[in-house]
Design a protein that fits this description.
The chain is α/β, with parallel strands linked by helices. It has helices at residues 9-18, 42-52, 63-68, 70-78, 98-116, 132-140, 160-168, 191-206, 214-217; strands spanning 29-35, 58-61, 82-85, 122-123, 144-145, 176-180, 210-211. It is globular. The protein binds zinc ion.
């Protein structure tokens, strides 16, 4: 099993100097983020669960999925969740020249704005692949690049217990947790991710944590 980039302290340190990985705070607050949706079945299930606990999350969506499932995206935004940009086609931006990076980010941002009336504030590079050009291009377009600090690789479906273990050992105030409600294949199973989110939110709420969107966690105006 390959380790996550975020499991290596030196890599984590390098990344956190270049883009947002977590937020400095002593208060028990953190951000729950979900990548690769919207998905026609998984995302609504997740939205039901979050609504039942009055939790707001941040969804990093893929433009091609937004085009297929605009009503799922609209629901997430209407229910107070923040929408982030995860590119139009979920491609490794660091392999591309600036015009293509720009097209990938604008392609997703335009679709989100077309449905919600708002442009995403944050972008998360697919697979976490970055270089100077990706960061510069994203910032030139007005996006704040973000990775996160907890990456249990739930999209590989390692088993519910493994996901829970990987998250629990990295929980701390200001953390940004990366989970997945969608996938490259539309048939991707996300039952482990949703079950993990359900259990972890219960545990963390009981522990006094509050969940915030990325904008709120970072002290910006709510999206
Ligand atoms: Zn992704």
């Amino acid at each position: 099993m390959s380790p996550s980039l975020l499991d290596v302290a030196s890599v984590r340190e390098y990344l956190s100097r270049r883009l947002l990985c977590s937020v400095e705070t002593r208060e028990k607050r953190l951000a729950l983020t979900f990548d690769d949706g919207p998905h026609p079945r998984h995302t609504p299930k997740l939205l039901d669960m979050l609504a039942s606990k009055d939790i707001r999350a941040t969804f990093f969506v893929v433009g091609r999925r937004v085009r297929r499932y605009p009503e799922v995206l609209a629901r997430a935004a209407n229910e107070g969740h923040e929408i982030g940009n995860h590119s139009a086609h979920h491609v490794p931006l660091s392999l591309m020249p600036a015009p293509l990076i720009r097209r990938e980010l604008e392609g997703c941002g335009d679709r989100v704005e077309g449905i919600t009336g708002r442009r995403p504030r944050f972008m998360r590079p697919p697979m976490g692949w970055i270089n100077d050009l990706v960061l510069k291009t994203a910032r030139d377009l007005g996006y704040e690049p973000v990775i996160g600090s907890i990456h249990p690789q739930d999209s590989r479906q390692p088993g519910l217990d493994v996901i829970l273990h990987r998250v629990r050992r990295r929980i701390e105030p200001g953390a940004i947790m990366i989970l997945h409600d969608g996938g490259w294949r539309i048939g991707a199973d996300r039952s482990q991710s949703i079950a993990a989110a359900d259990i972890l939110t219960d545990e963390l709420l009981a522990d006094g944590y509050r969940f915030e969107t990325l904008s709120v966690l970072t002290g910006a105006e709510a999206w």
